[in-house]
Each structure stands twice: as structure tokens, then as C-alpha cells.
Amino acid sequence: MEKLIRISVRELVEFILRRGDIETGLLATVDRAQEGARIHRMIQKNYGKNDQAEVYVKHLIKNGKYSIEISGRIDGLRFGEIYTLEEIKTTTKKIEDIDVNFMHLAQARCYAYMFLKENNLERIKVRLIYVNTDSLESRAFEYDYTINDLKEFFDELVEGYIKFLEKSLEHINERNETIKEIKFPYPAFRESQRKLSVAVYKTIMEGKKLFLEAPTGTGKTMGTLFPALKTLLGPTSKIFYLTAKTVGKASAEDAIKLLQENGLIIKSITLTSKEKICPNELKCNPMECQFAKGHYDRINDALLHSLSMDFFDKGRIEELSRRYNVCPFEFSLDLSMFCDVIICDYNYIFDITSSLKRYSFESKNDYVYLIDEAHNLVDRARDMFSITLSYNEFYKVKQKFKSFRKLNLALGRVIKYFNGLRESIEMDKVAMTIEDEFLNGINKCEEVVEEFVLKNLIKDEELLNLYFDIKRFKKIVELYDENYRTLFLREEDILVKLLCINPSKILKGIMDKAQAAILFSATFTPLSYYMDLLGGDGSYKLKLSSPFSKENICVMLNPYISTRLNDRENTYERVVDGIKSLTYKKGNYLVFFPSYLYLNEILKRFPQDNVDLIVQRNDMTEKEKEDFLKRFSEDSEKTLVAFAVLGGLFGEGIDLPGEKLIGVCIVGVGLPQINFERNVLKEYFDERIGKGFEYAYIYPGFNRVLQAVGRLIRAENDRGVALLFDDRFLKRPYNNLIPDLWKPLKIVKGNEDVINTLKRFWKEKSDC
């Protein structure tokens, strides 16, 4: 069957003819679509009865193997002896400074050729009209073309596109043949892995969502990727493997490489944030960066030459970007358009201000989202769909630009509102609406700041940051509904925060536009909580049991030591003794605390004469984190005890297999710190379903506990011990959340009990 490829004139021109430097900041990103539409209507209102506005044109190119449908909309056609085609563009430049933009003219020439071809005409005039958005003054540039003039230009443009298209189609044909033949890359499916893979395939083919709890060892990465790749034969065109952790990206990359080694032809790319891949400290302008200067002159050659490769990780992208002298971040985004699997962070799909603009996530598409460690998506989504504005950011900009009256008046209006809050609220406060006074002030600020920057070509960082915060605030306002609250927070600063409490509606809306979404985690407990908050209405669900033997793990509970806030001072010494008893056997241990404050209190009392003690800090760099993990060696001479915080850097997303970790201690039930914002969540869920404390504190806290103990057994032959402190683990709802692998919990009364239990476990598997 002949394949039909659809592309718009604008997409074609912007891809094939792009030239020049990368420009960033406000000047490059302002969206003036609404203003442009108003000016289009203003000009089109003066058309005569035979003139036409918004004329749709399309052109079909066939070659037997595929067809290309190129389409677009002409702003205006003036009737006459010779038609005049009008292309209208808005600008903030002074009329006398305007010159013809090559890309604008190229777009108009394509429309002109397509119109002449459709109507069997020989000649046309093209008028490019630039209108200043403030003064409404205009300047026109007029050209005469014959169909032969335009055909040569149009054919050359299409020829450039076909080079990429044929490489892409050739790859897809080869890919599909290998997908048909590829076998599962291991001798057999693991226990429950086949069930997992069948559920994933069925869900994708039916266009649904699946919530999948698959414990460590189930083989989630290959179990989800393998069946998803099979659906590239239909109905899927692209797979997005979404993860919040570096280790998740590495697992997906390893799975892809293994399949490629087994004969699968597949193009895969891992997207890295601009902050982590930029070689020039984010100085993204042609004056300071050799990669930004002339990037678009070189990018298509770089792409064309790179498409002979199939695997693009961070290292390869960096190497290719140096070879072709292009920006690695922008290069990776362009490369992703030609890849079958895109491994990236959640925000590339879900963040309303930083999602991949090259893709049509806002309309129905045929993509599949494989969402790894999806328990993290609850808090990440809340962050992505929330926004905070502060008094200080407005005040600093106002002081810096105090000589500009119009800007000062707009900023002053918002500052006046903040000052009113300072006088009227004595403590943090919550509301269910956004006051019109504040919204109106923000709207005026956006308009004035945008006009000020564009007129004066200002590139001040604080001013631009404020502008982008305002733009984000306005986008969040569009989402604001009964699932939001407005927080007024009194700190050293005065803050207004639009807090997304329940992101399920927004997430569901995004996922429903895809072909399918598979959300999976080792710790989706309770599943109903995650389905409720992640838009799981009408979804499939599957809960798998752990493939590991209970004989390989011993989980002890000391319910006689309270870690409640009011009891801690009286139990510090007993916690220290408990940790010492857990570590009686030489090896490596992780001890998790509910806070740095608690950690430091135990640290003061913990004897370090017979152990190596390392401690997590809240400001660790990537290098320090790597060094911390390197200390977990299988051949350490002394016992290693590492103090860490639940829910922190080392609570999940790290692999310490074999003898690198033999014991974990959990101090407390993992409850998040009680604060104003968490209590707002509690009140919301109390009103909605009567489970405020569970949703705000218990369930997210217990997930930290599950993740921390989950560091212990990473492979089939791993063995280890865990010690929990707190009587609440025996009470509802905590006892209902305990996984089967931990049961039955071994209740220990003191240090002697712990040591005796451990002696039995380490000596003889069957005793524990």
C-alpha cells in the first residue's frame, strides 16, 4: 500500500530552508498569534467581493512508493487580470527598518506555485505585507512570478525534503522486517513477565491505559519495551519511554542495545536536559557560543549524515555535535523526529511550558507512553502544574528599571496587591479562587513587559525570568479549577502560589490523546491511590507478585521504639543500639531517617570506632553522589554504615546488587513533614473522599519506605536484612500496605532478639 505523507508548507519551508543562528530569550519565543490574527482580519475586512481570504491549497506528489501531500492556507487572494497573493506578517520593528524575511517569501512562493498549479494559471503577483503591531503602519514588497520560476524553486525544496523522507522510509521498512522476526532476547520470560508483556501489548492495541505494579525483578523495562516495539507495525508510530531517574534511562538504553545486538533495527535517542548537555554554560547566543552561531546553516547536513546511525545516547550526541559544530540540545530534538524510541524525562510530555514543541501532543496522536517509576509522577505533576509568584521578583525588576514610567506603573500595580496581602494576612492562608485584582495586574504586566523588551531589545535576565514566570502563571490559570487552591504564603517574602492538588484531570487529558499509556512501578501501593491521582479512570490495572524468594530477605520490626515527633528525644539512644545490632555482621548498610534533623541527632550519638560512616548531605553534587555510592564495595575491609534521608538521593533509583548492600534500616514510617501545604492537600482529600491524612501523608510516606527497602534485593540471588522501627507498621492502614515479600514480619523486642534473628538468617535460609 502506498504511504501518504502529510506536511504543511510552513513545516516544509522551516525544515529545509532554515538558516542562521540560534536565538533564545523573549525575542525568540514571544507568541503573537492572537495579535497576528487580529491584524489579518483587519486587512481582510477591506477585500472586494471577488477577493478571497484564508484560501486552502494543497499539492500531491506521487512516485509509486509513497505520496506527499503538501498543504497550507493563503492569507489573501486579490482578484484581477493577474491574481495577487498576499502573505501578512506582524512585526514590532519600525516600518523603515523592515526588510524581507527569506523564509516568509519562500512560504508565499510555495503557496503561489500551488495555487497556479491547481488553477492551471501561468502568472501571479506575490505581495509580502509587514504590519507594525503598535502603529499598524504597513510596508509591502511585491514580486512577479511565472509558474516556471516557482516550479524550479518548489521542486528544489521538495527534493531537499525527499532526501530525509526516503532515508526515513527506508529505515521504517527495514525496521518493520526485523520487528516481525525479533524474538524475546532472553532464553525465557521471567515469572510474571509474560503476563506483563501480554497486558502491555493488549492495552496498546486497544488504545487504553494500564496501571502496572511490577516489583523489582519482574523485568519491567524489557517486559514493557518489547511488546510496545511490536506495535510499531501498527497502530503506533513512536514510543516515548518516560522516566524521572538517570538509572531508568540507563535501563531503557541497555534494553534497546540488547535488542539491537539480537538483530532489531530500531532508532533510539536519549534526550538530556539543556542544563546537562550544554557545552557553554547555557550562554545560548551567537555572540558567546560557536554552536549557536550559524547552527541552522549546518544542522540539516548534520542530521542527514547522522541518520546512518541507530543509537543516540548523551555521549554520541555530544560527539556528533562537536563534529558538525551544532548545538547538542537542539540537534538531539531534531534527531528525535527520526527515531522510533525516545527516552526522556516526564516533563518533555507533561510540562505545559517545556513539552516537545516538534510533536502534536495537543491533538490525538499515535504515540505510546511507557511511564517508568510512575509513582514519582504524582509530585512531579503537582510541581509542573503549579506556579509561585513573589513580591521580591516584581520589586527587584521595578527598582532596576525605575526610569521607565509605563513599566513601573504596571509592576507597581502588582506590588500594591502584594503589599495589601502583607498588611491583611498574619499567617499562611488558602483560597479557592484567584482574585480579579491580581489577575488584571498580571495581564497588564505581561503586555507591558513584552512591549518594553521587544521595543528596547532588552536581554536583562531578571526581567526575562519575570516575564516567563508571568507567562507560565497565565497558562496555569487556564487549568485552574476545583482541583486547585490559591496559597498566600508569608515568609521573608510574600508569595502567591497556584497549587495543583489533584493533577489527575490534566494528566488524563494528555494521556488520552496518545494511542496508549503504560504506567508502571515497583511501588504502586495502594494502586487505587495512584490511579485516582494519575488519571486512571477507565484504565486497566495489573498487580504482579515479587519473583524473589522470601527466603532471601528477612524483615524485622521493632514496634517498641516510637519515632513520633514527641517521643524522639527519649528514643535516640535505643535507635542507635538497634542500628548497631543490625550491623553485627560485616557488610554494607543503609540507614534511612525521616529528616536531616533526626539524622544529625543520631549521628551525634553513633559510635564510629569500628565502622566506616558516610552521611548524605542536602547539597551534594553529582560527583559527591557518585563518590558516596562507590563506597559500597563488595570487598570492604570494615563495615560500612551510610546515613541517608527517606525520599532523598539514595532512597530510590540506585542499584547496589550482591554484597554491595546487605542491610537496610528504616527509622519511622516515612511521613512527609507536616506543613501548611500538606495540610491543604489533607483538607482537600478529606472533603472529597474522607481520606485526607492517607492521601497527604501516609501513602506518599509509605512509598518512601517501600522504595528504601527495595534497594536491598535487586537480583534473584541477592540476600539481605531490613529493620523497621515504629509500632504504626502494625496498625491500619500501614499493615495493609506491607508487601507479601516481607511477610511475616519478624517482631523483635530488643538488640538480643535482632542479633539472634540475624544469626539464624545468615546461617540457614529456611529459618527466617
Globular, elongated, flat, extended or rod-shaped: what is the shape? globular
By DSSP (H or I, 4+ residues per run), the number of helices equals: 27
Number of strands: 25
Percent helix: 40-55%
What is the beta-strand fraction?
Answer: 15-25%
- Spans of at least 5 consecutive residues whose pLDDT stays below 50 are none
Please render the helix and strand layout as text.
Elements: E1 3-8, H1 9-16, H2 26-29, H3 33-44, E2 52-62, E3 66-78, E4 84-91, H4 102-119, E5 123-132, E6 138-146, H5 147-181, H6 193-206, E7 209-213, H7 220-230, E8 238-242, H8 246-261, E9 268-270, H9 274-277, H10 295-306, E10 311-312, H11 314-324, H12 328-336, E11 341-344, H13 347-350, E12 367-371, H14 377-384, E13 387-390, H15 391-400, H16 405-424, E14 429-431, H17 436-456, H18 461-479, E15 484-490, E16 494-500, H19 504-512, E17 516-521, H20 527-533, E18 540-543, E19 553-558, H21 568-582, E20 588-593, H22 596-605, E21 611-615, H23 622-630, E22 639-645, E23 663-667, H24 676-689, H25 692-709, E24 720-725, H26 734-737, E25 746-747, H27 751-763
Parallel strand pairs: 1-3, 4-5, 7-17, 7-18, 8-11, 8-12, 9-10, 9-11, 12-17, 19-24, 19-25, 20-22, 20-23, 21-22, 23-24
Antiparallel strand pairs: 2-3, 3-4, 5-6, 13-16, 14-15, 15-16
Family: Belongs to the helicase family. DinG subfamily.
Keywords: 4Fe-4S, ATP-binding, DNA damage, DNA repair, DNA-binding, Helicase, Hydrolase, Iron, Iron-sulfur, Isomerase, Metal-binding, Nucleotide-binding
Organism: Caloramator australicus RC3
